[in-house]
Amino acid sequence: MSKHIVLEGFMGSGKTTVGIRLSYKMAMTVTDTDKLIEKEQQKKISDIFAEDGEEAFRKMETECLRNLAKQGHGQIISLGGGVPMRPKNREILKTLGMVVYLRAKPETIYARVKNDTTRPLLQCSDPLTRIRELMAERESMYEEAADVIIDTDSLSVEQILTDIVREAEKRGISSCSY
Questions:
Q1: Which residues contact 113 (CB under 8 A, 6 or more apart)?
Q2: Three-state DSSP state, 172
Q3: Confidence band (pLDDT; 50, 70, 90) for 178?
Q4: How many domains does the chain have?
Q5: Which of 143, 161, 144 is nearest to 152 (CA)?
Q6: Which residues neighbour 153 within 8 Å (Cβ) at sequence distance 6 or greater?
Q7: Do the Cβ atoms of 136 and 146 come closer than 8 Å?
Q8: What whole-number distance in Å separates Cα of residue 110 and Cα of residue 47?
Q9: How far is CA 64 from CA 37, 57, 59, 77, 163, in A?
Q10: Average of per-residue pLDDT across 157-177
Q11: First-residue to last-residue Cα distance in the chain
């Protein structure tokens, strides 16, 4: 098994923030699947959704995971929120390393993303209801993919990092600086 740390969770759950901070704490590279796809496609996720459709984007996510699975050890991988929805993706995730589900309540997510117009799935008349619906659909798949679940609503980033480092050490994923 690879020794990556994979961060999953709904949009706005803190994957990017935690991933960046964790990369410094553990002296590991951080890779964001959405950013990789944007770089490869040379367009924003919102444009991919608009021009190619959600299904095409989901296929791009699977290919991105396959490519990451071929790479060496020691990365922090921050997933797009929909990556674990495909059964094939959940299979690939299990081969990558320790999967950490950063879980937050719908109200917390809404407070974090309500002013973000780059979230294509939330461009609707009632984003909070949409968040609740999507989270209800995804919860079991996030849990299935996860090795570790951290409820982030009342935790600081530092507390989340401490929990992840502790779990990584239990699994033999070493850190260099903390």
A1: 11, 12, 119, 122, 127, 131
A2: coil
A3: very low
A4: 1
A5: 161
A6: 104, 105, 108
A7: no
A8: 22
A9: 7, 10, 9, 11, 27
A10: 86
A11: 24
**Overall average pLDDT of the 88-113 stretch:** 93
**Domain assignment of residue 142, yes or no:** yes
Kindly report the CATH number assigned to the domain that includes residue 30: 3.40.50.300
More reliable by pLDDT, 105 or 1: 105
Is there a contact between 121 and 50 (Cβ–Cβ < 8 Å)? Answer: no
Is 1's pLDDT higher than 50?
Answer: no
Is 32 strand, coil or helix?
Answer: strand
Picking from 150, 161, 164, 163, the residue whose alpha carbon sits closest to that of residue 13 is: 150
Which domain covers residue 129, as residue numbers?
A: 4-170
**d(C-alpha 160, C-alpha 136), whole Å:** 23
Inside any domain, residue 177: no
* pLDDT attached to residue 34: 92
Average pLDDT value over all residues in the chain: 90
